[in-house]
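Our consortium's second objective concerns turning raw sequence data into structural hypotheses that experimental partners can test. To show how far this objective has progressed, the report includes one record in full. It was chosen at random from the queue rather than selected for favorable results. The single chain below, 339 residues long, was entered without modification.
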Amino acid sequence: MEPEKAHYFTFSLIRSLHKIPSFPAIFRSIYCYKHPKLEKSLFGLHFKNPVGLAAGMDKDSKLFNEFGNLGFGFVEIGTVTPKAQLGNDKPRSFRLPKNYALINRMGFNNEGVKASAERLKNRKDKTLIIGGNIGKNKTTPNEDAIKDYEINFLELFDAVDYFVVNVSSPNTPNLRELQEKEPLTKLLNRLQELNNAKPKPKPILLKIAPDLTDTQLDDIIDIVKTTKLAGVVATNTTISREGLNYTKEEIEKFGAGGLSGKPLTKRSTEVIKYLKQRSNNAFPVIGVGGVHSAEDAIEKINAGADLIQLYTGFIYEGPGLIKKINKEIVKRVGSGSRQ
């Protein structure tokens, strides 16, 4: 089945099964794994386990309750934008099974932030942490981008537990230019201004690309410190095509887009380690990119990741991967792992 159709078919199947009485409890009994050693408090939030679902899967906040029943400790919805948009032309999602990878150029397709905020009122499990990943509309020029992020922030504020500012997707034209020091600092300062005007501010994190140089990563560290962000999500998808087991012609046929999955494992872990060591562990990092096994997760934790997120690994390995990772974390506690 074509990848995007398979995505919607799977969503429909999960939703349908959860409507059958007792099935949600069955899913929880199979996939959820609870242990006191998995619980973690970070940036003022209490996570029942450190394995989360990365943004991009539940773009419109339609299945977060169901994903909680599959064992995730937190779910990041989005990326949402102020106005609904269709995203890029199809086909825009491709499987690379030889590398356990995906290429997508979805382009922030979503129904708009108001629709997401409304659905999030239906949170059944109050212990499931929800993050809101926010971006700008494709038609919004970069000089007006701050307004888009403001709208998203204010609309979602009462509906989510933390925010992630997405300026690192390669699939919205010129979006990554907002990662440069001056525009990024201006954007984050404005969001913090809005945040600090609230009676109870929410944690704001920044999602960064794996393609940044060490100099750019040093800038990110400075920005996070000066704007007093809660942390960083490392990393988004990559525009690199290195190490793929496909011919040059096949790769060109896939076209533009962000690459995720196993080819990203090493680089995302390197970025986590660099941020943690260079900043002297100054802020939390959520590690995402190429986690396809419990060992991959442990490597990211040992590199400095405070929490882990799955996306492509979840697609290839299934929900059983969440439980495997959590069990391995418990097993490693006190035996050399940071956890």
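The partners drew two points from this record. The two ends are 39 Å apart (CA to CA). The chain is about 40% helix and 15% strand. Both points have been shared with the crystallography group to help prioritize constructs.
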